[in-house]
């Protein structure tokens, strides 16, 4: 009897320890939750990949993102997507409207938007430009980019833990979130799609802590 009780207690303790480790001391219960907590605790640097896009000359992505006076909200999309990417586009349209109103009121926020396509084969700069026009993206606020090298695209997705799986029919299944990158090109926070306003408010808060945020006004990318 005592031996059975001891074994049961040992198994319970092992299960507790395993759950605590997997959930960061019970702070999260899903892989996505763990990803977000890890980023909040330890910013993730952009890997050495090269980007190009709408009004963006070929350059290291970290160079594009490393603007001390600006905070960048990033999402990952592909232009043929008819599901979650439409929701992401709608979210960025609404955020863009907020940023343009801020600018019109003389309240520079230092926040800008960048949509990165992971379908570099199809999403050429011309395709991205057409997509931007379709979404009525203001190029002074919202730009579109791709990583033309497929291996580098995968490197970026792995670094940011963006899951992209071909569905066998030419499209992709992928997770969706709003990523906040600081003026050093580091991923510092991840928000769910339903947390659109929270993501914008957080980006604004970071921008206010950044020198020259009012000068940038969120108008340059």
Structural class assignment: alpha+beta
Helix share of residues?
Answer: 40-55%
Ranges with pLDDT <50 over ≥5 residues?
5-29, 213-220
Can you identify the CATH superfamily of the largest domain? Glutaredoxin
Radius of gyration computed on alpha carbons:
20 Å
Mean pLDDT across the residues is 84
Neighbour order of strands in the largest sheet: 1-10-9-4-5-6-2-3
Query: Termini, distance in Å?
Result: 70 Å
Count of runs of 4 or more consecutive helical residues: 8
What share of residues are in beta strands? 15-25%
Number of domains: 2
Q: Give the CATH level 1 class of the largest domain.
A: Alpha Beta
| N-to-C series of helices and strands | HHEEEHEHEHEHEEEEHH
Describe the structure.
The chain is an alpha+beta fold and 221 residues long. It has helices spanning 2-22, 31-41, 61-65, 84-104, 125-134, 150-160, 196-208, 213-216, and strands at residues 44-45, 50-53, 56-60, 71-77, 111-117, 142-146, 164-166, 172-174, 178-181, 186-191. The chain folds into two domains: 2-38, no CATH class; 43-216, Glutaredoxin, CATH 3.40.30.10. It is 43% helix and 21% strand. Helix 5 links the parallel strand 5 and strand 6. The chain is globular and about 45 Å long.
């Amino acid at each position: 009897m005592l031996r059975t009780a001891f074994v049961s207690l040992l198994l319970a303790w092992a299960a507790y320890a395993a759950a605590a480790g997997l959930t960061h001391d019970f702070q999260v219960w899903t892989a996505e939750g763990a990803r977000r907590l890890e980023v909040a605790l330890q910013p993730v640097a952009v890997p050495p990949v090269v980007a190009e896009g709408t009004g963006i000359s070929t350059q290291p992505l970290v160079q594009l993102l490393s603007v001390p006076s600006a905070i960048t909200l990033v999402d990952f999309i592909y232009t043929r997507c008819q599901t979650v990417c439409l929701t992401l586009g709608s979210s960025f349209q609404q955020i863009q409207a907020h940023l343009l109103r801020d600018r019109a009121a003389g309240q520079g926020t230092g926040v800008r938007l960048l949509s990165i396509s992971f379908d570099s084969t199809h999403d050429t700069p011309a395709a991205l430009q057409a997509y931007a026009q379709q979404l009525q993206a203001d190029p002074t606020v919202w730009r579109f980019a791709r990583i033309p090298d497929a291996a580098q695209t995968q490197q970026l997705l792995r670094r940011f833990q963006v899951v992209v799986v071909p569905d066998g029919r030419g499209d992709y299944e992928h997770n969706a979130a709003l990523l906040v990158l600081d003026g050093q090109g580091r991923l510092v926070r991840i928000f769910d799609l339903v947390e659109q306003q929270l993501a914008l408010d957080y980006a604004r808060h970071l921008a206010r802590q950044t020198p020259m945020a009012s000068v940038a006004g969120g108008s340059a990318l």
